[in-house]
Design goal:
There is one protein chain. By secondary structure, this protein is an all-alpha fold. Helix content is 80%, strand content 0%. It is built from 13 helices and no strands. It starts with a helix and ends with a helix.
């Protein structure tokens, strides 16, 4: 596991260095597209550090919660980079414009009740903070009708972004199968919402035998590390695509990515083998039922 962790850190470091060089050599200081991508890359980098820390400290579920934000950030990076050059400007203008105005409107609506509660309880400072979120002199609020707001919110949702990426995937930046991220994103959502699925995940861990528990934890950590390194790697390629650069599949970055997954595979396989009897029993039941 130490070798796996070291390889993940090396892969991320290589990606981070390449991204910095790509921006230095290609970014336009006056480009809103480049400005947005720089902000997104910085955000995901901070989330990545948190994921590494939490995973190393054995806080796997907390790392998963941060992974949800990590997924969302990379999906937006891919969306902007994959878009046709002529569409990127309009996309980032919508991100900072109409989409931001939609979020401002939602924040104002949610804060309204809080402001009233603080007023009633003689807490003027807190009331003023909440009231400020509804100040039209400070924030622009989306004025479209409900149907327009719903469509815009859907467009920027994680699932819809993945759908757009799959529909527009091509050989220059292939993202076939990116929709598979929806499953773990859903699991992470359960953890955030503290629903019955989240509680069942906690219970499942406690009911495992010590031997099986160890295999499961190692496999879980490998999946987090594998996703983390993969998203860094794919987004570095996405940024190259944004600048019209190709031919990076033989780079050291991709060699590290392959090396990492070769290290992860036997760990994941050991846990999969320990579960084979369980899943085979359900396949047999399905077969008899048919």
């Amino acid at each position: 596991m130490n070798k796996i962790q070291d390889t993940v850190l090396e892969a991320i470091s290589v990606c981070r260095d390449e991204i910095e060089i790509l921006f230095e050599e290609n970014a336009d200081d006056d480009s809103q597209v480049d400005y947005t991508l720089k902000r997104l890359f910085a955000y995901q980098s901070d989330r990545s550090q948190t994921i590494s820390f939490l995973t190393s400290a054995n806080y796997w579920w907390d790392a998963e919660i941060i992974m949800r934000s990590f997924y969302e950030t990379h999906a937006k990076i891919w969306l902007i980079c994959q878009s046709k050059p002529g569409d990127r400007q309009a996309l980032v203008e919508e991100f900072w414009g109409a989409f931001a105005e939609l979020n401002a409107r939602k924040k104002a609506e949610r804060a309204k009740q809080g402001a009233e509660v603080f007023k009633e309880n003689s807490r003027p400072y807190e009331a003023a903070v909440y009231q400020t979120l509804g100040n039209s002199d400070l924030y622009d609020f989306h004025e479209g009708n409900r149907k327009e707001r719903k469509a815009l919110e859907q467009k920027w949702s994680f699932s819809e972004i993945l759908k757009t990426l799959e529909e527009n995937s091509d050989n220059s930046f292939p993202l076939n199968g990116v929709g598979a991220l929806r499953h773990m994103y859903g699991q992470q959502s359960h953890l955030i919402h503290a629903d019955e699925n989240a509680l069942d995940l906690m219970l499942d861990r406690r009911l495992r035998t010590p031997e099986e528990h160890e295999l499961l934890v190692c496999s879980h950590v490998c999946r987090i590390f594998g996703d983390q390194a993969s998203l860094w790697t794919f987004s570095t390629s996405a940024l190259r695509h944004r600048y019209g650069l190709t031919g990076d599949r033989k780079s050291h970055r991709w060699k590290l990515w392959k090396q990492l997954h070769e290290l992860i595979e036997p760990v994941s396989q050991r846990f999969a083998d320990s579960q084979k009897e369980f899943y085979d029993s359900y396949e047999s039941q399905d077969g008899s039922a048919s």
